[in-house]
Specification:
The protein is α/β, with parallel strands linked by helices. The protein is built from 13 helices and 22 strands. Helix 1 packs across helix 2 and helix 1 packs parallel to helix 8.
Length: 491
């Protein structure tokens, strides 16, 4: 009998989360097998938005420019009454965010997945197999033995860890006995994606129409597409909503006949759920396997890729000798952020999904009055930073470290992957696993003013930045290196 193939990590599911995780692992010298039961990318759009942080991850993978070339930007995200009055307006999505890229970007998910897979397949250390399903795993003290079904029959692989990036119904999560916390949001919506022939006849911004007769979403997408979503009313069936004549009636008020061609129609349940455990022994879950959220905040795909970035550097550190307990920081770091995003999405959804005319009228009056009184949402939602986990000391520890940008370059491209320590003044300490640089270094000349501004605002003289670009800690550089050491190699 042949010995099983051996990898550091088995990633089950080759959607954006799984492929990003596999690629980041491979870049860090971790051998990974990424599998997917399907033969190819799901060809129709699902996610429609990524933010600046996610483009920064794609920058590390070398695909940011390719991805951005196919995106579209919306300057605003408006919540409107049935009569077109503005209830709520989010602005700033077209401005550069802290990640060094535009804050909000409307996408075509299959195009992004194609770019991700192309980049991933080119990386040594990453094995990529489609038409391969995960069947079961057995865990022991040193690793996991998994049985897979491939086109050639059942095969066995051995890995130190297994990560389920296998979607909302995650077989990996279910087999591990991980329960799910239902956050009590469950609505059915018809989703329509269309190919665009005449942009001039379409809205130029993203819209939520808070019409009790038919709550509706209308948003831009990338790669020549546009999306509408229509909430099902009580008594309506998915079959009736999917009828082409019925869809034509829904689109008629938008006056887009001839300007678009229907590409996809599907009825989805918008849910909000979070796995109660994101790690159980050597099994971890990420992306939709760890959390589901309504689409109103545009953060579902973003949250999965943040999971991947968080896990990747920790799994790489463990391979180099760090304690496996580092993985215990994964859920405490990520879950508060995800819960806050889901809370925002539910708030948006419950604002939109009111179908009782009297309740909708009361909502409109209250929100219009608040807007008239000067109430405005922040340009960037205030989701919590990392508050507990692999961080050292008080704020700015746990905050997202901004990427400085010049007219010709970006900070990450200059300093490279891995952890950084940036200080105002030279110091006498070294760590081969950390890129150390002072503000007067010529490499930082294009970014010096931006970095000096950050240091001054935070009132710090040195900062250590994790590979996922969150601040580990600030203060004395020698102390920071000492505190960081257990997080990248054995203490």
């Amino acid at each position: 009998m042949l010995a099983p193939e051996t990898f550091d990590v088995l990633v089950v599911g080759a959607g954006p989360t799984g492929v990003t995780l596999g690629a980041l692992l491979a870049q860090s010298g971790v051998s990974a097998l990424v599998i997917d039961r399907e033969a190819d990318i799901y060809p129709l759009p699902r996610a429609a938005h990524i933010d600046h942080e996610i483009v920064r991850v794609f920058q590390q993978l070398g695909i940011a420019d390719e991805v951005m070339a196919a995106t579209r930007a919306s300057a605003r995200y408006d919540f409107l009454t049935a009569g077109g009055e503005v209830l709520l307006r989010f602005e700033g999505a077209d401005r550069v965010g802290p990640g060094g890229w535009p804050a909000g970007n409307m996408i075509h998910q299959p195009s992004i997945e194609a770019s991700l897979r192309k980049a991933a397949r080119a990386l040594p250390g990453l094995t990529f197999r489609t038409s391969t399903a995960w069947l079961s795993s057995q865990e022991d003290e040193s690793g996991v033995t998994s049985t897979l079904r491939s086109p050639d029959g059942e095969i066995t692989v051995r890995s130190r860890f297994i990560v389920g990036c296998d979607g909302a119904r995650s077989p990996v999560r279910e087999a591990a006995g991980i329960e799910v916390d239902d956050m009590q949001f469950d609505e059915e919506w018809l989703v329509i994606d269309a190919l665009v022939h005449d942009y001039e006849r379409l809205p130029k911004i993203n819209l939520q129409i808070c019409d009790p007769a038919r709550p509706t979403t209308c948003v831009l997408m990338g790669s020549g597409r546009h999306r509408w979503e229509f909430m099902l009313r009580p008594g309506e069936t998915a079959e009736a909503m999917l009828d082409d004549a019925f869809i034509a009636g829904l689109l008629a008020p938008w006056n887009v006949a001839g300007a678009v061609t229907l590409e996809r129609k599907a009825v989805y349940r918008f849910n909000a759920r979070i796995a109660k455990q994101w790690r159980k022994g050597r099994t971890l879950v990420a992306g939709d396997a760890a959390h589901l959220m309504p689409p109103f905040a545009g953060q579902a795909m973003c949250s999965g890729i943040r999971d991947a970035a968080n896990l990747a550097w920790k799994l790489a550190a463990i391979k180099r000798g760090a304690s496996e307990s580092l993985l215990d920081t994964y859920q405490p770091e990520r879950e508060p952020n995800v819960r806050a995003i889901i809370g925002m999405a539910i708030m948006m959804g419950r604002t939109v999904c009111i179908t009782d005319p009297e309740a909708a009228s009361a909502r409109d009056q209250a929100m219009l009055a608040a807007r008239a009184a000067g109430s405005r949402p922040p340009d960037a939602p205030n989701y919590p930073p990392i508050m507990a986990g692999a961080i050292h000391g008080a704020a700015p520890a746990g905050q997202y470290f901004p990427q400085s940008v010049s007219s010709t370059s970006r900070l990450d491209d200059v300093l490279g992957a891995g952890a950084w320590l940036i200080s105002r003044a030279p110091f006498h300490a070294a760590d081969a696993a950390v890129r150390t640089v002072t503000l007067d270094n010529s490499l930082l000349a294009p970014f010096r003013d931006q970095l000096e501004g950050w240091f001054t605002r935070q009132n710090v003289d040195a900062v250590l930045i994790r590979p996922d670009r969150y601040v580990f800690g600030a203060g004395d550089p020698v102390e920071l290196l000492s505190a960081w050491s257990p997080h990248h190699a054995a203490a």
